[in-house]
Amino acid sequence: VAFSALLGLILGYMLKGYFGGEVIPATKCAEATKKGIQKYGEKEWKLRVELAAAYRISAHLGWDEIIFNHISVRIPGRDEFLINAFGLHYDEITASSLVKVNSKGKVIDEGTSGYGFNYAGFIIHGAIHEARDDVNCVFHTHDRDMQAMSNIKTGILPISLESIQALAVLSPEKHKCRGITTKEEEREAIVKALGQHDLLFLENHGTVACGGTIAEAFQNMFNLSRACSYQVATMSTVGGDLSQIVTVDSKYVQSAESKGRANDISQKGGGYSEVARFDRPFYAMMRRMEAKDPSFRY
Length: 298
Fold this sequence. Notes:
By secondary structure, the chain is an alpha+beta fold. 48% of the residues lie in helices and 12% in strands. An eight-stranded mixed sheet has the order 4-3-2-1-5-8-7-6, sandwiched between helices. The longest helix is centred in the last third of the chain and has 24 residues, at 214-237.
């Protein structure tokens, strides 16, 4: 009886999809992929799917702020970028809903949502993309613990593996808060504070993470997020008394130079490769999102 009931549910679901009701996810994904490639080409569609997944992952990790904040990615070889529509929650973003703009914020393709995009939010992203050819993806978030760390003067302490990785690419400068980022003149100040680093604190505002790929920017943000969470918890535990906090010996704190040497070693067959450091964690999270809800592929 139980088997018959289960079989009935499965057949009912399949028939519903077959006769024009809700299409089963695998079929819908295949249809969306075919249409997406036809409209945007294979490379851009793949980038759209990965960026949509990055938004879903960010929501899963608590990096979302209702419809605010952004993740942007450069379309290779073009002065064009993909960013979220201004009106969709991170959990609602799909590959086809992403808005395509140029570095000046002019909309090239508005996506399927009809919401347009938040130009004020692109001031940060557009400035970094324009100034840094090596940066193809930018994350910006107001995550609670990262926001908390942007409010205090101590900066990130080397108290975890994640913190010493974050410190290797974190700018020693901070961007001063000037209220909601809406002014064009703020672009230059953000770029100057970031320099050639991949992580930046925006004082009383949040954080920015950059990378050559979506996966690299994600991992940089993940390391900073964990570093901030560990530090907030640790400082709370000792009542803010920094003298009670044990830190990693400075000789073990990863510098940008040592990071470069480690990458050289990994490319020669040993060590910790770029694929292992960035791609594998991101794609592992992407598979989790697919298991949870594959609609980001639509």
